[in-house]
Design brief:
Blueprint: H1 3-25, E1 34-36, E2 43-45, E3 52-57, H2 73-76, E4 84-86, E5 109-111, E6 114-121, E7 124-129, H3 148-159, E8 181-188, E9 191-196, H4 203-209, H5 218-224, E10 239-245, E11 249-254, E12 275-280, H6 284-293, E13 298-299, H7 310-319, E14 324-328, E15 332-338, H8 345-348, H9 350-358, H10 362-368, H11 398-402, H12 408-417, E16 429-436, H13 441-453, E17 456-463, H14 465-474, E18 480-485, H15 493-497, H16 513-523, H17 528-544, E19 548-549, E20 556-560, E21 564-565, H18 579-582, E22 586-587, H19 589-594
Parallel strand pairs: 3-12, 16-17, 16-18
Antiparallel strand pairs: 1-2, 4-5, 6-7, 7-9, 8-9, 10-11, 11-12, 13-20, 14-20, 15-18, 15-19, 21-22
């Protein structure tokens, strides 16, 4: 910690003592009113129990079994748990938890269901399972103690290594699938040993916090085949999912027997809230109205209601200055992917793809449309937060940089050279771009206007979530589709792997032996340094071939009512570990009542 930050924390602590003394002199116990947050040094009202946290959800989970897609993790989060998590008690000067959702340094991780672990050699992980953790008191688990056999069963299901599972799960495609696992064995009631066929960097982190690493109830899976039905979900976590009305709401109730304590205030058993309520609101205007009226306590990433952009924030601030906003930006959602699996002008000729990028005046779009708040300089597949694995735009080879700089005349020349002269109406190519229903449609129309200026007419077609996801997975869209780039929140191999022809998820349908070789070198690297070199090379190769069009990375905002305490903009404590944060927040109940809520 630097001296200035350390001094600020000391000052905040002294302020807490002064406040506490003044309250004590007034005849009250100050500790019941004020505390110092040890991770920030800020003085906050002391944790209180009670109340129901209500938040907005824009996209409800498809199921409650993460083996059936990443989105399902949002249904099981807060109910089931993993072996590890990011340490909520970490010094925020060291790691602030506001950006990288899934990509965390190993030093930030701590045990959860695993109390500890050791690695006697590069291919062996020995986990000591926390004793005294019990499943919820709900059939068929009925509150029995969690055991190492439960852990073994779940990982056998992921990898097809026993317990009746003979092949890896056919739908799950997360980071765990890339680990070369040889065996998973519960050697006693509280010990699990995982053996790899060969060393792999990042394997331990994935086992601890990947979105497929939730420990689900074996008895339920044996009885029903999966945990897709929410009524069957049983976990060990701080909340129990007790109601789900499709398209309307989800309700969680406090687990009164939860084993966990607050890392910041270790004497406090979690959770603080009596329950959680998610109001499913698909329209941004509905979410904004609920926030303004105090109907919801939180809007943002945790509830997958991310539609608070700069303009919306400014409008809310005019009417509700008491609401606190926390900016976040972890990827460009204004990128586009070309369908390389179909024969189109874009897939056939890199000059056409390059022209599409050169047609966009990114700097002006940022100044005018995004009001200067976006990160407009081009990135590769990986963003700024994946330190050591990416190459800043200023360090790109000059020839690559030129292909990402605004040059409409140069773009027209490239189209002429590629054999696409303008017609009588000035149009050279007509095409379509499928866009996710919650994407920034106005930005897409702005980009389309720039493209039309060089003679490429792009019709924007909106798709609802399930259809858009299917098109991405199966490359069933036309020439272009709205996509993401400049990824800041995933471990590096995942987004780089989206271009791997032998991988499970390849939205552009890219198939290039040289890129595959670079990806495999990164995947099989023996050291961090070796992996970083290979990832950088793969990222640059993909970038110079213009498989994606870069669009500005614009910020979004989490919005929090003033009576919510313990929150500083944190996003996640693992891969889709969002509700875990809500279990560590509380209300200033007096303030909420005084404000009429």
């Amino acid at each position: 910690m630097d001296t200035q930050k350390g001094s600020s924390k000391l000052s905040a602590t002294l302020l807490a003592l002064i406040l506490g003394a003044s309250v004590f002199m007034a005849g009250q116990v100050w500790a019941a009113k004020y505390v110092t947050d040890p991770t920030t040094g800020k003085v906050v009202s002391a944790p209180e129990y009670g109340g129901t946290m209500t938040f907005a959800v824009q996209r409800e989970p498809p199921t409650t079994d993460p083996m059936f897609g990443g989105g399902a993790s949002r249904g099981v989060d807060g109910v089931a748990e993993k072996l590890g998590m990011v340490d909520w008690g970490i010094d925020r000067d060291v790691y602030d938890l506001t950006g990288a959702f899934f990509y965390f340094p190993s030093s930030a991780l701590k045990g959860r269901l695993a109390e500890s672990w050791e690695t006697p050699d590069a291919t062996t992980f020995i986990f000591k399972i926390r004793q005294g953790v019990h499943w919820h008191k709900k059939a068929p688990m009925n509150g029995r103690e969690l055991t190492a056999q439960d852990i073994e069963y779940n990982f056998h299901r992921v990898w097809g290594l026993g317990s009746g599972f003979t092949a890896p799960h056919e739908i799950y495609t997360g980071a765990l699938t890339r680990i070369p696992v040889e065996s998973v064995t519960a050697t006693d009631k509280y010990t699990v040993v995982i053996k790899l066929k060969q060393p792999q960097l990042g394997a331990l982190d994935s086992i601890l916090i990947d979105h497929g690493a939730f420990i689900l109830p074996p008895e339920v899976i044996k009885q029903h085949g999966d945990v897709k039905e929410w009524r069957n979900l049983v976990g060990t976590g701080p909340f129990m999912l007790t109601d789900w009305v499709d398209g309307s709401s989800m309700t969680w109730t406090k687990n009164p027997d939860y084993w966990g304590f607050d890392e910041k205030f270790p004497q406090n058993r979690l959770p603080y809230f009596d329950g959680l309520s998610a109001l499913i609101m698909k329209e941004p205007a509905t979410i904004v109205a609920a926030l303004r009226s105090g109907q919801v306590d939180y809007v943002g990433w945790i509830g997958v209601a991310e539609m608070l952009y700069t303009a919306e924030k400014e409008n809310i601030e005019r009417t509700n200055p008491e609401i606190t906003f926390y900016p976040w930006s972890i990827r460009s959602e204004n990128a586009s992917a070309f369908n390389m699996s179909k024969e189109t002008p874009f897939s056939k000729d890199i000059r056409v793809r390059r022209a599409m990028q050169m047609a966009l005046d990114l700097e002006t779009m940022n100044k005018t449309y995004f009001k200067g708040e976006a990160r407009w300089k081009p990135r590769g597949v990986l963003g700024d937060a994946i330190v050591g694995y990416n190459t800043p735009f200023e360090e790109w080879p000059e020839a690559v940089r030129k292909g990402y700089m605004y040059d409409p005349e140069g773009a027209k020349k490239l189209l002429d050279e590629a054999g696409y002269p303008p017609g009588p109406d000035g149009i050279r190519i007509k095409t379509t771009e499928h866009l996710f229903e919650h994407a920034d449609f106005d930005y897409a129309q702005l980009a389309a206007a720039y493209w039309k200026a060089i003679g490429v007419e792009v019709k924007i077609i909106r798709s609802e979530a399930a259809t858009h996801g299917a098109r991405l997975r199966e490359q069933t869209y036309g020439a272009m589709i709205g996509w993401i780039s400049g990824i800041d929140y995933l471990e590096p191999l995942s987004p780089i792997g989206w271009g791997y022809s032998k991988g499970g998820f390849n939205p552009s349908g890219y198939n290039d032996p040289e890129f595959d070789r670079l990806y495999e070198a990164a995947r099989d690297a023996a050291t961090i340094e070796e992996q970083q070199r290979a990832v950088k090379a793969a990222d640059m190769y993909f970038t110079k071939n213009h498989i994606y069009v870069w669009g500005p990375n614009a910020p979004k905002f989490n919005a929090v009512q003033p009576w919510v305490r313990g929150y500083a903009g944190e996003q996640s404590l693992g891969s889709d570990d969002r509700m875990v944060i809500l279990s560590r927040l509380w209300f200033d109940n007096g303030m909420k009542k005084e404000m009429g809520h």
